[in-house]
Amino acid sequence: MCGIVGYVGPRPSQDILLAGLARLEYRGYDSAGIAVIDEAGSLDMRKKAGKLAVLRDSLTDAAMPDGSTGIGHTRWATHGGPTDVNAHPHLADDDKLAVIHNGIIENFAALRDELTAEGVTFLSETDTEVAAALLGREYRASEDLQTAFRNVVNRLEGAFTLLAMHEDHPGLVVGARRNSPLVIGLGEGENFLGSDVAAFVEHTRSALAIGQDQIVAITPAQVTVTDFDGNPVEAQPFEVSWDAAAAEKGGWSSFMAKEVAEQPEAVANTIRGRVQGDQVVIPELDGLDDLFTGIRRVIITACGTASYAALVGKYAIEQWARVPVDVELAHEFRYRDPVIGDDTLVVSISQSGETMDTLMAVKYARERGARTLSVCNTQGATIPRESDAVVYTHAGPEVAVASTKAFSAQITALLLLGLHMGRVRGSLDASAADVVAELQELPEKVAQVLADETEHVSQLAGWMADTRSVLFLGRHVGYPIALEGALKLKEISYIHAEGFAAGELKHGPIALIEPGQPVFVIVPSPRHSALIHSKVVSNIQEIRARGARVIVVAEEGDAAVLPYADEVIRIPLASPLLEPLLAVVPLQIFAMALATAKGLDVDQPRNLAKSVTVE
């Protein structure tokens, strides 16, 4: 979750650290701090509970000496509450050493007891201060920061990214990663570290990805990467495909509003280069036909919003590739001893590529011989590197905590994957060419929904700002969209919302219906399945008869819903498996508009983090 920035170079580090942390605010945090080694060679530190603005204000009120070596951190509380004392950095070795940390050190209690027995006094409740104290002890013994750092990380258990610097070594920052993200930014006469590339993309788009259990040391002139035993390793270079402007609001009221509006571009970019004539051919999967022809089963594993994209992917892959698909929540997958083997393809979905539950599921699958493929939006991330293959989405940076354009790009990638697999497995029929042609029209149709319904849905949300509960119903691929609509509303408006399979209504949830209860219903096209459509209309009649306020999302020209709907939101005509990309847009707008009407921060909802890097 936490944001991490490190810098060495000729420029004043405070500005670079604060700007980098600002671009990492999307990750979710409750305190912030920086440490620098000033021009006199002394280490100075400032940290504050609350948002980054609180730290900035404290630096304005009482300036801290600047220097060209520094580390910065935004913390999401785990061990100890969000207080000034628990914030990072943590100091050791008579305040000459500073450490920041993302993740959880699972054996911190034993290490703390060991250090306490030696007379070490701790100021905070954090596991991070234990690592700092341990590093201080090791440094006093070796007087070499890199040797001491290597000794410490080999004693730590759990998930961590650690950065450290010592005033005896200005111009040097060391970092390590285990099950937690860390990337290197390469500059001219300067170098950077960050929990993702947003930390330094303003200054360089040239980056290195380091692997599991590796240590990096940066100076202005050099980057050195080793394993935890000190053996040199080669980091993987990559170019960041977007620039800093892509992660700015650009005049929008919120990042979420900007990202909702960017969905046509996100969908188009994810499709681009993957259609050849009337077929889908994903270049990243070239030469991997055996990955798909040899499998008898697919498991898609993900968390939260990504798991709802996975449900849509299940329908697509089963229909086009004719292989059974299960969807598993990543945090449940490896704890129930699932039956998998070399005839199983495990597809993981993660926007950040660092979601800890999903990463652990991928590792578990590989250990048991399964083939693995990831769907990811972030270059240099861990999950793609741990997988046999990767299909990147091209949504660009998503800053708002509540996912919108990344979700649409994930569905798009899964549709492409289903068509690619179907082609390789020889299971597509003649209608697939029409679907491929229609797929390329989707960006324009998403743009049409945004143009036609944003004002209508926003006005509807304004009228419902005092609503305490909203239900969402859907069938077929409308069901995962109902789940996603409910999740978006919960995430940013803090009101009760639930999504149901419409057929489940009479098996219990109908007891929730009372006069005035708002219910969104995702109505499937009558052109493709008159039977499913008629059953959903019957569901609408059932809830309307009990006084519910019914808001229907239905395709253009569907007149059958009009007698039973209080409000109708229209989406363009589309094939059944493509409808989710259109139906989800008004639900995103509704959640955003309702939260805005309540005066809430739609970009950084309470208690949530963008990138969940702990289990």
Task: Please give a structural write-up.
With 615 residues, the chain is an alpha/beta fold. 35% of the residues lie in helices and 23% in strands. It contains 18 helices and 26 strands. An 8-stranded antiparallel beta sheet has the order 3-2-4-1-10-9-11-14, with helices on one face. Strand 15 (275-276) and strand 16 form a beta hairpin. Helix 7 (263-271) runs antiparallel to helix 15 (442-463) and helix 16 (478-493) packs parallel to helix 18. The radius of gyration is 25 Å and the shape is globular. The model has no long low-confidence stretch (mean pLDDT 93).
Short description:
Its EC number is 2.6.1.16. The protein is an alpha/beta fold and 615 residues long.
Write the layout of secondary structure elements.
Elements: E1 3-8, H1 13-23, E2 31-37, E3 43-49, H2 52-61, E4 69-75, E5 90-92, E6 97-105, H3 108-117, H4 128-142, H5 145-153, E7 158-166, E8 173-178, E9 183-186, E10 191-194, E11 206-209, E12 214-218, E13 223-227, E14 236-239, H6 255-261, H7 263-271, E15 275-276, E16 279-280, H8 289-293, E17 297-302, H9 305-321, E18 325-329, H10 330-333, E19 344-350, H11 356-367, E20 371-376, H12 382-386, E21 389-392, H13 405-425, H14 432-439, H15 442-463, E22 469-474, H16 478-493, E23 496-501, E24 518-522, H17 530-544, E25 549-555, E26 567-571, H18 580-597
Parallel strand pairs: 17-18, 17-19, 19-20, 20-21, 22-23, 22-24, 24-25, 25-26
Antiparallel strand pairs: 1-4, 1-10, 2-3, 2-4, 5-6, 6-7, 7-8, 8-12, 9-10, 9-11, 11-14, 12-13, 15-16
Enzyme class: transferase
InterPro entries: GATase_2_dom (IPR017932), GFAT (IPR005855), GFAT_N (IPR047084), GlmS/AgaS_SIS (IPR035466), GlmS/FrlB_SIS (IPR035490), Ntn_hydrolases_N (IPR029055), SIS_dom (IPR001347), SIS_dom_sf (IPR046348)
Organism: Microbacterium bandirmense
